[in-house]
Amino acid sequence: MSAEHTVLDPRTMRDVLGNFCTGVTVVTGHDGREPLGFACQSFASVSLDPPLVSFCPARTSQTWPRIREIGTLAINVLAHDQRDTCMAFAVSGGDKFTGVDWTRGDNGAPALTGALARIEAVVEAEHDAGDHTIVVARVTGLTALHDDGPLLFYRGGFGRYTTETILDEETATDVNPVR
Fold first, then answer.
1. What is the pLDDT of residues 104-114, one digit of tens each?
2. Peptide bond into 110 cis (omega under 30)
């Protein structure tokens, strides 16, 4: 059987890919009547020139189609102490903003209080990707809010990043590529 026809067990795929640690974001938008948002761990920087990012909402999301229709959004990078915020936005339906402090960002999308950073963007393209879609968005604004460590998702649980600097003994230079 060739690799292109191999059937992979979804549980095994989740378990293996769970070894890749990701940050956690909340993608938000405002339709003029109410704030909208959903938790998203599939987020990446795509290009510096032009400035592009991507994220991957599930096809089952009820919130993403509403934000897509608006066209402008914010990606809020959650801080290590925002697990409860993540969980509020990870559910389907209901008022996800209950008990969540926020203000409107420059583009009108909700800016979550306590987030590490906010990326404001406009939807450029959306591509089919199985049970998710891949959204490419053009960055229109960037705000670094504070440096308190991100909320991380790893093997189905949440954690916190701590900085460990590794020195190269021969050159005595900092070789830690992550800052």
1. 999 999 999 99
2. no
CA distance linking residue 174 with residue 179, whole number of Å = 11
pLDDT tens track for 88-137: 999 988 889 999 999 999 999 999 999 999 999 999 999 999 999 999 99
Q: Are 21 and 152 in contact (CB under 8 A)?
A: yes
Given the structure tokens 């993540």, which residue do they identify? 86
Spatial separation of the C-alpha atoms in residues 79 and 10, rounded to whole Å: 29
Token pair 């229709």 is found at 69
Please give the model's pTM, rounded to 2 decimal places.
0.83
Q: Which amino acid is at 143?
A: T
Q: Could you list the beta-strand ranges (E) of 41-168.
A: 43-47, 52-55, 72-77, 102-104, 110-112, 117-129, 132-144, 151-154, 157-160, 167-168
Contact 52, 122 (CB under 8 A): no
Chain centroid offset of residue 32 CA: 23
Q: Which 3 state secondary structure label does DSSP give 93? A: coil
Which amino acid is it at 151?
Answer: L
Q: What angle do CA 76, 81, 84 make, to 5 degrees?
A: 80
Q: List, for residues 2-44, the tens digit of each pLDDT value.
A: 556 678 888 887 777 666 677 899 999 999 999 999 999 899 9
CB neighbours of residue 39 within 10 Å = 20
Contact 28, 95 (CB under 8 A): no
